[in-house]
Amino acid sequence: MLCTSLPECLETLKPRHILAISSPLGGLGVLNLARQTKLSVLTSGPVFNKIAVLEAVDNYGAEVKYAPRLHTSIYKLVGEKECWVAGPPLVRSVVAGNSTSLSVYTCTKVEGVEKLLTNGKPIETLSSKILGGGGDGNDFDLVVQLRSLQVKGEDEEEVADRVIRSGVFGIDDLDTISQQLWRLASRRRNRSAVLFREPHTGLGITIPMVYYGVKVVAGGQDCPQGRCIKTTAKLLERALRLAPPAKIHEEWRAALKEPQTRRRIEDSPYIPAILMLTGKIDVRHEMGIRIYTLR
C-alpha cells in the first residue's frame, strides 16, 4: 500500500498515536503533528525551531527524545493496525503534505526498530550544543534552564533575587539580565512554551504571557497617570486575550474563573517576579493589592 504524503497516510490509517524517528527534526513539524494526534519522537538532531518543540511538549503532551547516531526517518502509525511508514524527516512541509515520497511498506512488526523508541533523553534536559540546528540555541538554553528552576520566596523581590542568583543567566547584573529576558520574550512571543512554573497552581507561565503582560501594563489606565494595572488577575486576563491560542492559556483562563485558584494567583509572587525581571515593570502594594506600572 502506498501513500504519497504523510497527510494521506494519516487519512488512510487514522492513527491514534504516531511514533517517529527523524533526523533532522523540525519543531514546527512536531508542533503541527502533535496538534493532530498523540506523538512520540526520537531524534539525533539537528533540531530546528527548538522552542516550538517545547510548545508541543507543553500544550499537546508530545514526547520528544534525543538519542545519538540515528540517521533515518521512519514513522510508526498506531491505530486499528500498526504500520511502518518510510519517508522524509519530520518537518513542517512533510506534515503539510508539501513533501512527498512517503510509502507504507509494512503493517507487521519490525524487529529492532521498536526498541529504539524506548531510548533517549527528553530534549528539554539537554543543551543546544547537543541538539544543534538554527539560531535559537541561546534562547532555548535560557528557557530550559528557567523552567527547571524551583525557587521559593515570600514576595516578588525575593523570588526575583533568587532567580538572578541561580546562575541561569550566567551573570548577576540586572540590566543585562533584563535585556536577555525581554529579547527572548520579544523574539518568541508567539511560541506558547513554558518559561517558568508557577508552583501555587502548577500552571506554566508562558513566553507570550510575559510579553503581553508587559504590553497590557503599558496600555493600562487603572491609575491617574496611566500605564498601570491593578491586580495580577486583571493583568493576566488582559494579556491572555492577546496571547496566541494554546492549551496552557485555556487552563489559565479556567483557573482565573475559579475563586479559590484566582486568589492563589493573586497571592503568588512568581508572576510579578518574572515581569519585574524584564526590566519593564515595577510592582508596588497598596492595601494588599499589587499594582503593576510601566517603568
Structural summary, described in words:
A hairpin with a 2-residue loop joins strand 13 and strand 14. The strands form four sheets. Strands 8-7-6-1-3-5-9 form a seven-stranded mixed sheet, covered by helices on one side. The protein has a three-stranded antiparallel sheet with strand order 12-14-13. Strands 2-4 form a two-stranded parallel ribbon. Helix 8 packs across helix 14 (270-277), helix 9 (174-187) packs across helix 10 and helix 10 (207-218) packs across helix 11 (232-242). The chain has 295 residues and is an alpha+beta fold. The model has no long low-confidence stretch (mean pLDDT 91). The chain has helices spanning 6-13, 27-34, 50-60, 92-96, 113-116, 128-131, 137-147, 156-165, 174-187, 207-218, 232-242, 247-257, 259-267, 270-277; strands at residues 17-22, 25-26, 38-43, 47-48, 63-66, 73-78, 82-86, 103-106, 121-122, 194-198, 203-206, 228-230, 281-286, 289-294. The chain is built from 14 helices and 14 strands.
